[in-house]
Amino acid sequence: MSKGIAQLSQEMSAQLSDSDIPKGFRFAATHCGLKKAKLDLAILVSEFPASAAAVFTTNQVVAAPVVLSRAHLKRSRHQMRGLIVNSGNANCCTGSRGDTAAASTASKFAAALGDVSPSQLIVCSTGVIGAPLRVEKILAAIPGLIQSLRSDAASFAQLARAIMTTDTRPKWAGARYSAGGRQIRIIGCAKGSGMIMPNLATMLSFIATDASISPAMLDRALRAVVGPTFNSITVDGDSSTNDTAAVIANGQSGARKIASDNADFRKFCAALDSVCKSLALAIVADGEGAQRVIEVEVRGAPSARAADQVARTIANSPLVKTAFAGADPNWGRILAAAGRSGVRFNFKRVDISIAGLLVCRRGGETPFSERVAHQKMLASFVPVVVDLRAGSSTARIWTCDFTGEYVYINSSYRT
Amino acid sequence: MSKGIAQLSQEMSAQLSDSDIPKGFRFAATHCGLKKAKLDLAILVSEFPASAAAVFTTNQVVAAPVVLSRAHLKRSRHQMRGLIVNSGNANCCTGSRGDTAAASTASKFAAALGDVSPSQLIVCSTGVIGAPLRVEKILAAIPGLIQSLRSDAASFAQLARAIMTTDTRPKWAGARYSAGGRQIRIIGCAKGSGMIMPNLATMLSFIATDASISPAMLDRALRAVVGPTFNSITVDGDSSTNDTAAVIANGQSGARKIASDNADFRKFCAALDSVCKSLALAIVADGEGAQRVIEVEVRGAPSARAADQVARTIANSPLVKTAFAGADPNWGRILAAAGRSGVRFNFKRVDISIAGLLVCRRGGETPFSERVAHQKMLASFVPVVVDLRAGSSTARIWTCDFTGEYVYINSSYRT
């Protein structure tokens, strides 16, 4: 992490404090009735017009709110005022009634806020695909939600909780840094546990900052940061229909406005990267049924694209992921997955280390203690390094182990 | 199946009879000590020089016996005499000692047979990758194996059993047909349960026939047949380093020799197809932890390649496969998997049926009974039809459901 950035995350601080919240934002969450007795609807509002950037799923099957939010960002020239998100229903494959539901949510939300147009709002949904959204429950809850808007840490934590589906815990991360004598804060939350292999986005992630930055530079920052963070994680290789990562910057820190690629921009990018990386790792660590995070690092690849392809193939291999569930240093499965990735290399040159132990040298087994390897693999974070010795490019993908619990969760998700 | 072909398989006949065995073949199996107290070494011998064809894994990481067998087929111009196969160790990523082990196995086998050269023999291994092969156990067992060669059904059944790894049952299938007044028999066995997504081959499959056919036409028949059979199944999307499907035809039926694309050739292809299809389905049905076979049929695709790509993406989706484990008609996951396959289509035109019930019409839910769908999905064979309405091409892939048992098997495979 860059010097001068103070980072917060669940691991570093059990409690979010009010001073971590960027200026000029308010949050609220409620239970509107889409889920049973759990928070399922939340809003984020900037008190002032703010720059916004967002990336969305690349799945062709896209949910109604994704289509609507893309259009809103364009129509408002990336000058937004807030977002509304529900969990419990993805509003995807719901036909024209789904489109109407998303649009009426934005309209009702805008009208209740007063001085905001619907196109200044982002709408997100997450949950079951294909079931009709009972939008009347959302519409009925909006006035109460707006009444309960607050700018404190507790209300942000409620937002983080309201977007959960199979997540076992809320996920948030923050960062702060100084520029021109002003303190700038970034706070973000994310949800995601299954159907995770983002491609230009993650499940849902909402990031608020009081940095002052033009929409163009904010978009550039977000696109630069998602590659090595949200786009470098996988739980099961399935990418969702509703993926959205949005960042809203309202300038209320009073810091100089970032309008070009200068030192302030790089500071902002470093802080945004630290928040997105924390959130991405939190998603993998909370992957459905996961016991541990596995960092797959591929080195010595002929190109960055090839490195990424090998790393993703390993990170998505059910046989590799189940071996990690059993803390089994089965490097043969890692090498076999690399071998079917489509990237050309000579497997008789490959070295593999697991949890810091060299287990495969030049494509063959090298003596190591199975007992020590097993013990090290029981950790919550296990690095794997695969050196192809076929070039100088690298890639890093984070995944989790594949347990019986994943199957249990997903064999009865709807019922 | 074509008229005039009598097909045998486990489902149709509990017991193989001696009259199902093609003429001029002998088989033997033994426990040589690579596994604990189970058959782990077997041979198949043709009493006369025979045409042979084989397809192998497309994984770049290939086992020593695959490299050796490819070279032997070439050197002997596809005129072979038999094969030797061990389970319990894949002899893969075992360096130059692995190459020597495979070669010495062929040499010892050839010397013990007497009138055969090593290059007339195919060598196969299956089991753990990366562990050194204790070839001395194989070499020591060869003379005894040859002593016990027999041409009956019981010895073939032992071959089918000796190649098993995580398979829960031996897999075999047979067919017979007449041409020119002669009866021709085909018998095949296969192993495979995990690391199954064959690409130009399957795990291991050995097929013997007393048909008389030139090596060139035998190769053509095998390549035509593997596409819609062995290459159309997946258990976990991981393709193995040792995949081999070999067919040996010794002409001992006395039937006319097939040397061109004539009626006899088409009869032979139909019979070979029926055997390979039975074996492929048996592999999926015995997929690690599988409760049921899922037939994913994609229709209305813009091209055959696109249809195959969509079908494979659905068939390998962990979320789709876990939903089937729970007999959950979660068609949204099927559509979402199709959406990330890379094939362009308009998801608002897609129809999906599960177990004969239309569950998604024009990309949205259509009324159906969840209870009826659940009941139908508890069957051992569940067809899924996805009609993209984007062309006229089709594809069919067989997969199995993804259960906690798969994870249990694979989290402790080596230990």
Fraction of residues in H or I helices of chain A: 25-40%
- Quaternary structure state of the chains depicted: homodimer
Distance between the termini of chain A: 43 Å
Total strands of chain A: 15
Rounded to an integer, what's the Rg of chain A over CA atoms?
22 Å
Unreliable segments of chain A (pLDDT under 50, ≥5 consecutive)?
Answer: none
- Give the ordered list of helices and strands of chain A: EEEHEHEHHEEEHEHEHHHEEEHEEH
Q: Structural class of the secondary structure composition of chain A?
A: alpha+beta
Shape of chain A: globular
Largest sheet of chain A: 9 strands, mixed
Features:
415 residues; nine-stranded mixed beta sheet; 26% strand; 15 strands; alpha+beta; homodimer
